[in-house]
Design brief:
- The chain has 144 residues and is an alpha/beta fold.
- It has one domain: STAS domain (Transcription Regulator spoIIAA, 2-Layer Sandwich).
- The protein has a 6-stranded mixed beta sheet with strand order 1-2-3-4-5-6, sandwiched between helices.
- The longest helix has 15 residues.
- It starts with a strand and ends in a 5-residue tail after the last helix.
Amino acid sequence: MSYLWEESMSGAQNPLSIDVSVPREDAALLAVDGFLDIDTATELHHHLANQLHHGRRHFLLDLSGVPFMDSSGMNVILRGYQETRDVAGSVHVIAPTPAVRRILDLTGVSLTVSLADSVDEALAHVDAHTAQASPEDRTGTPGA
């Protein structure tokens, strides 16, 4: 399953595109291409919320195509992190560009959200996260 969404706002010099795929039932891979800023961050959040609504608990955000991210983009990542914590999920940023990595490091987001070099590495982090969760966290019932 794969979706492609493109935003073309009047005056937008670098429209954002988001390609959503589902590498496995509990995880959504969102490949983001373009500026992730105040004009486009809301759309990323809508995609994350939609995937959460469809039962995905783990978000893999491929930011290798994002040359610029402002605080709005960072806030969407943190909001996704908070929302996935409520369902024993996780957020993983994949291959951020040097400029985006610098923002994540300077703000401390990289201490909260997992960073990975590839989709496979991010899925390994998901598996490690799931293994650490207690049976109650995974099933919603104590001791199940």
